[in-house]
Amino acid sequence: MATGTIQHAAKSFGADGTASGNRLARDGSVVMRSQLEQQGLEGKLFVAGVGIEGTALTGRTALDDTTPDIWLQSPSGGNVLIRPLWFEAMVTSEGGAAPDWYLAAIGANIAIATAGTTVTPLSFGKVGATSAAILQTLPTVGAITSAQNIRLASSESALDNLISVEHITGANTDKEDMMSSLTRIRYEFPFPLYLADGQAIGFYSVAGTTGQGLEWTFAYSELDSAAHR
Predict the structure, then answer these.
(1) What is the phi/psi pair of residue 86, to 5°?
(2) 56-89 per-position pLDDT tens digit
(3) How far is residue 207's CA from residue 99's CA, in Å, rounded to a whole number?
């Protein structure tokens, strides 16, 4: 009786039915990379914000759901999903009294009523790749109800004159703080939050009669929803 060998063909099939080989370790286990790393390799990682010689964004002086400082939105009715990854803003000037900020996830498709300044992100992993996301500073959007949004993070207890008095004198801060941790807003999204069909992330700042100065960075990735649904 003849003997034979049964072998495993290391193949996987994409959404288009094309077979591709899996990368295997010497013990036969599959070598896998994270979805986010794969998106980066495909040129679907985008970063936007203020450059080396850029000008800080001047925030708002009053809180209103229709007037975000920064608005990141997925395209309406398309097959593109937006995954926000990291938001950071260096507060370069404290503005007027009682400086606060809010970061909210918007679960509905809220249209932009009056366009702000469109920001074009840089693509990393593939030079010149374009993003389908809508990213603007200081737009006016439609009204957002309480049922349509959730606050992801906020600060409503910042000291008045945090930079001009407290940080200078060192009364309540460390003057050796070269990372400016007390005047830097950071939010790393702790779970895979995908924006689809017009959903958005809105950043709001409030500072009395004069807006805060914000040197900001927003990183996000994109993927094709049709391949996952």
Answers:
(1) -155, 130
(2) 999 999 999 999 999 999 999 878 999 999 999 9
(3) 4
